[in-house]
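Section 5: illustrative case.
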């Protein structure tokens, strides 16, 4: 049976929106729900802040230029941790009867390195030692986070843990701007990029989770992600370069998870029919000589934070309908 799920983010700006999002996800995606994220709530709810709420033994605080590492946790990091704990309490209450797979999301080590500053400024990406420390702190924090989720959701079979890496292709291409904006950080080669991912992906596996990596970019390095330990990859089918198709096919044939973004992430005009999205996936599979599998998952093309609440719900409904048609 082909499944459907969401990428992660959801529209809204308060705790009530989070509670409603969890109920919606559990209702619309009963076979593979995910933990919704509400970045519109502000400090600590964004992609970077959410991950910094999980990292172990590293302090951080929000500065005018963005998140920065500090000697001790600042008020913003403490607030992010409190909000994450509150979210997980709510999830535990609402999803206590869920049996089956479940998905959660966190920023990956390279997206964190590209968005967090060192204590004296400039991105962590610019310093080999700092980015190593951040990746290892994320790995240790993820280990604890996954164990906590396992305790809270005892009915979950496969706990899919998705690392969001929107910045990874830019990191490897040397396209991340410096603090001044006049230059670019030096590119990170494949072995170094793989090593940091390996630490975090291995921690997920060791804690009992299934490690996935998501990127909406066109040049997703699928082979590198699989080699680093990812047991699933999430891509935007309309954006990913055709050069990645063979690697995605190999992942499916190896019984790994492949999440295909086909449902628009923002309110479309006109609204595509479920049958047209089903046909699009079938054409892609036919081109590769594959059939739909239980590890093939239909998703929106990216997070739904920019969508209207009505379309966010409809997007999940369409994803489920498309997956059902594939089945």
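Designed sequence:
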């Amino acid at each position: 049976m082909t499944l459907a799920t969401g990428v992660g983010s959801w529209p809204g700006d308060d705790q009530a929106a989070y509670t409603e999002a969890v109920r919606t996800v559990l209702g619309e995606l009963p076979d593979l729900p995910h933990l919704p994220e509400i970045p519109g709530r502000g400090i600590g709810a964004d992609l970077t802040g959410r991950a910094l709420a999980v990292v172990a033994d590293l302090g951080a605080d929000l500065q005018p230029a963005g998140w920065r590492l500090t000697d001790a946790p600042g008020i913003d990091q403490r607030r992010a941790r409190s909000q994450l704990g509150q979210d997980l309490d709510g999830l535990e209450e609402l999803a206590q009867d869920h049996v089956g797979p479940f998905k959660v999301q966190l920023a990956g080590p390279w997206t964190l390195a590209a968005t967090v500053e060192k204590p004296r400024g400039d991105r962590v990406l610019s310093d080999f030692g700092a980015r190593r420390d951040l990746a290892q702190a994320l790995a240790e924090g993820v280990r604890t986070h996954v164990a906590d989720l396992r305790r809270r959701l005892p009915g979950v079979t496969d706990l899919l843990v998705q690392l969001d890496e929107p910045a990874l292709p830019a990191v490897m291409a040397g396209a991340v701007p410096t603090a001044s904006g006049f230059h670019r950080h030096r590119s990170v080669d494949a072995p170094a990029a793989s090593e940091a991912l390996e630490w975090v992906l291995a921690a997920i596996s060791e804690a009992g989770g299934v490690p996935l990596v998501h990127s909406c970019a066109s040049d997703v390095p699928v082979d590198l992600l699989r080699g680093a330990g990812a047991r699933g990859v999430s891509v935007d089918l309309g954006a990913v370069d055709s050069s990645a198709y063979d690697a995605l096919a190999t992942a499916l044939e190896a019984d790994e998870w492949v999440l295909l973004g086909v449902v628009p992430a923002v309110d479309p005009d006109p609204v595509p029919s479920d049958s047209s999205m089903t046909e699009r996936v079938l054409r892609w599979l036919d081109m590769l000589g594959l059939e739909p599998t239980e590890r093939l998952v239909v998703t929106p093309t990216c997070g739904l934070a920019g969508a209207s609440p009505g379309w966010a719900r409809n997007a999940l409904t369409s994803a489920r309908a498309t997956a059902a048609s594939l089945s």
